[in-house]
Every structure is written in structure tokens, then in C-alpha cells.
């Protein structure tokens, strides 16, 4: 199939793009097009206007500050995957990007496009959730910051007004006492995950877990944090028995059956992957955050 007719716009600046969004009705933003174009072709969506923001150079960057890695929304996934800066200061993102689609799609796909498409099983939103990322949004009324925890407004629906554009993402720098892990299970390489897990652990001088983050994807309408398990782990030694008890929290997650997998299967898979991710994160934290 081919898309329904639409008017094409290609602004060269943020003010021009925001003005178009404010003026036009039923408009969609085009970033890398790896999700939007197939949806247009299959006529899942039929906007009257398509606004291509790929020429706005100020949206494509990644740079380091004292406390965080700042990434422009139009930065290509392949650029981030190849970046030594990302591998050193945000290794969880680097590890997850390997699982995002294929080389061809990563060369066009953008970090902002994935966050705005907000597929429940997508890797980039899962990493942003685990790291408590902050998103910068700009619209006709100005700029605002949105914590990643507040970003999902519904199924594949970000907390983004019709006249707003996601411009940047702030990912905190990895800490010396921090370990990370990203694990997913998919039918084929490059498919969306059946279940995916992003985990971050910090281990103090006393050998006990000082903070924990566990994010799961593929188990509902949006990725979510396993808060009960995180709270349980704080203050515990990173032993298999404690990690296994934390992972068992997945057994109580409400997951519906679908046309492909039962909720019971996803819960079992999620419990296994959480245990593996936490063990790997604990091992890395014990080695000073390095890959082991």
C-alpha cells in the first residue's frame, strides 16, 4: 500500500517547525521515518501534513556535561552506537542500541523518534526509564522538562502536545560504583522484544546495594519500573538469594494474554531475565562499572 495524500513541509529551524505545528491541523513530525513511514504506507495513520525536521541541525548532537550526557532528539541511533562518549558515560544505552532494529534502520532511526513512537517493547524508552532520563520539549508556549517516568500518557502516546517538539534527552553519567545490564528476548534478531529488561545497581563501600533501577518492556501498554523489587534490594547484599527474591516480583505483574503469548509466559520470561540482568549488573558494579 501507499500513504494517503498529504502536504509535505521541510522547515530549516525550530521556530519555523513550531510555527508550522501551531498553524497546521492534523500534522505529523518526520524524524528518521523508521516507524512513521511504514505506518503511513499501511494507512494506520493518514495525516494531512508531514513536517520533516531532518534539516534542523541543532537537534542532532551529543555532548557531555559534568553530570550528564545530553543528546539531541534527531541524533541517529548508529551515531550513538559508534560513539566512545556514549560507551564510556552511558554504557547501558550503548548496550541496548545493539538490539535496536538492524544496521540499516539504525542509520536512519533517531533517538527522539523512538521515544516519541513509544512502542512498549522498544529499547531506547526502556533505557531512558531505567536511568531516570529527562526530556526537553519545546512548543509555542516555550520549553519544559518532562521526567521519563511521566512521559508515557497512554499506549504509544507520549506526554507531548500537538504543537510541541521533543528536542533533547538528558541521560545521567554512569557512576564508579554502578553496574548496568540490558537483556531482551526476541524471536529473531532485530525484532521487538517479547520481554526486555534494563537494570542499574549501585553498590556502596559496605558491599550492599545502595540504589536499584529495574525497567521492563514488552509486558504492558508501556515500559514500567519494578518499584517493589527496587525498594527490596536497597540495603541488601547482591547475593543470588536476594536477587532471586527481587526478580520474583515479576510473578505478580498483571500481564494480559495476546495473540502471540500468554501473560503467564511473559511473566515467567520476565522473572528469568530480571534475575540475569541483576546478576550481571551486580558483577559489573563490583568491578567498578567495567564490562566483565
Automatic annotation (TrEMBL):
InterPro entries: CO_DH_flav_C, CO_DH_flav_C_dom_sf, Diverse_Substr_Oxidored, FAD-bd_PCMH, FAD-bd_PCMH-like_sf, FAD-bd_PCMH_sub1, FAD-bd_PCMH_sub2, Mopterin_DH_FAD-bd. Pfam families: CO_deh_flav_C, FAD_binding_5. Its EC number is 1.2.5.3. SUPFAM superfamilies: CO dehydrogenase flavoprotein C-terminal domain-like, FAD-binding/transporter-associated domain-like. GO terms for molecular function: carbon-monoxide oxygenase activity. The keyword Cell inner membrane does not apply. The keyword Oxidoreductase applies. The lineage of its organism: Bacteria, Pseudomonadati, Pseudomonadota, Alphaproteobacteria, Hyphomicrobiales. Residues 1-176 form the FAD-binding PCMH-type domain. This is Carbon-monoxide dehydrogenase medium subunit. Keywords: FAD, Flavoprotein, Oxidoreductase. PANTHER family: XANTHINE DEHYDROGENASE SUBUNIT C-RELATED (PTHR42659). It comes from Bradyrhizobium algeriense. PROSITE patterns: FAD_PCMH. It comes from the Bacteria.
Amino acid at each position: 500500500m501507499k500513504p494517503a495524500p498529504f502536504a509535505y513541509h521541510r522547515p530549516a529551524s525550530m521556530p519555523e517547525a513550531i510555527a508550522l505545528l501551531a498553524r497546521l491541523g492534523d500534522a505529523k513530525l518526520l524524524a528518521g521515518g523508521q516507524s512513521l513511514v511504514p505506518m503511513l504506507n499501511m494507512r494506520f495513520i493518514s495525516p494531512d501534513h508531514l513536517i520533516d525536521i531532518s534539516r534542523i541541525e541543532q537537534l542532532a548532537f551529543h555532548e557531555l556535561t559534568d553530570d550528564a550526557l545530553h543528546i539531541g532528539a534527531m541524533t541517529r541511533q548508529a551515531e550513538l552506537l559508534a560513539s566512545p562518549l556514549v560507551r564510556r558515560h552511558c554504557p547501558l544505552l550503548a548496550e541496548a542500541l545493539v538490539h535496536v532494529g538492524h544496521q540499516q534502520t539504525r542509520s536512519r532511526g533517531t533517538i527522539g523518534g523512538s521515544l516519541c513512537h513509544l512502542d512498549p517493547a522498544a529499547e531506547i524508552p526502556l533505557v531512558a526509564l531505567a536511568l531516570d532520563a529527562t526530556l526537553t520539549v519545546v512548543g509555542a508556549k516555550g520549553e519544559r522538562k518532562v521526567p521519563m517516568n511521566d512521559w508515557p500518557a497512554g499506549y504509544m502516546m507520549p506526554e507531548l502536545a500537538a504543537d510541541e517538539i521533543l528536542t533533547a534527552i538528558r541521560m545521567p553519567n554512569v557512576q564508579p560504583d554502578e553496574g548496568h545490564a540490558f537483556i531482551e528476548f526476541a524471536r529473531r534478531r532485530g525484532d521487538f522484544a517479547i520481554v526486555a529488561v534494563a537494570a542499574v545497581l549501585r553498590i556502596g563501600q559496605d558491599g550492599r546495594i545502595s540504589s536499584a533501577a529495574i525497567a521492563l518492556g514488552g509486558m504492558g501498554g508501556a515500559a514500567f519500573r519494578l518499584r517493589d523489587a527496587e525498594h527490596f534490594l536497597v540495603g541488601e547484599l547482591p547475593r543470588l538469594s536476594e536477587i532471586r527474591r527481587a526478580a520474583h516480583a515479576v510473578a505478580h505483574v498483571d500481564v494480559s494474554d495476546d495473540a502471540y503469548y500468554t501473560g503467564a509466559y511473559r511473566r515467567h520470561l520476565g522473572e528469568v531475565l530480571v534475575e540475569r540482568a541483576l546478576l550481571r549488573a551486580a558483577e559489573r558494579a563490583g568491578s567498578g562499572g567495567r564490562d566483565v
